[in-house]
Design the sequence.
């Protein structure tokens, strides 16, 4: 079994009982899981594959998957920001699939933390 397949099985087992399902779009699932593994290799933790991490675990802790925003996003939109985790209704197509807006506060993005900005 590949590392991505192992991650798939492990996360599915932990998350489905909590009501978080992988999206039916399997290609997207594999891409995002590969992104999580890449980030683990790069930073030492699985930061969100759809967001730019800073490399500082403390600064990135809100976007370590599952991020702090998943619960509210799945509740409100039926999907997390990346569309990796979705509700049953999302997969069944009984709710509209709208783009999930970024819920992370802008000041937490590395783009907004250039050196000297706080001076
Ligand atoms: S948006 Fe989805 S994939 Fe990204 S960290 Fe949150 S739960 Fe994980």
Sequence:
């Amino acid at each position: 079994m590949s590392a991505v397949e192992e991650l798939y099985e492990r996360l599915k087992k932990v998350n489905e009982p909590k009501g978080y399902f992988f999206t039916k779009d399997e290609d997207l699932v594999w891409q995002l899981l590969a992104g999580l593994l890449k980030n683990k290799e790069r930073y030492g933790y699985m930061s969100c594959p759809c967001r730019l991490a800073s490399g500082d675990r403390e600064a990135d802790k809100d976007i370590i998957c599952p991020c702090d925003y998943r619960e509210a996003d799945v509740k409100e939109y039926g999907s997390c920001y990346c569309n990796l985790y979705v509700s049953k209704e999302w997969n069944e197509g009984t709710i509209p699939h709208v783009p999930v807006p970024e819920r992370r506060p802008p000041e937490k993005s590395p783009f907004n933390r250039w050196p000297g900005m706080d001076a």
Summary: DSSP finds five helices and two strands in the chain.
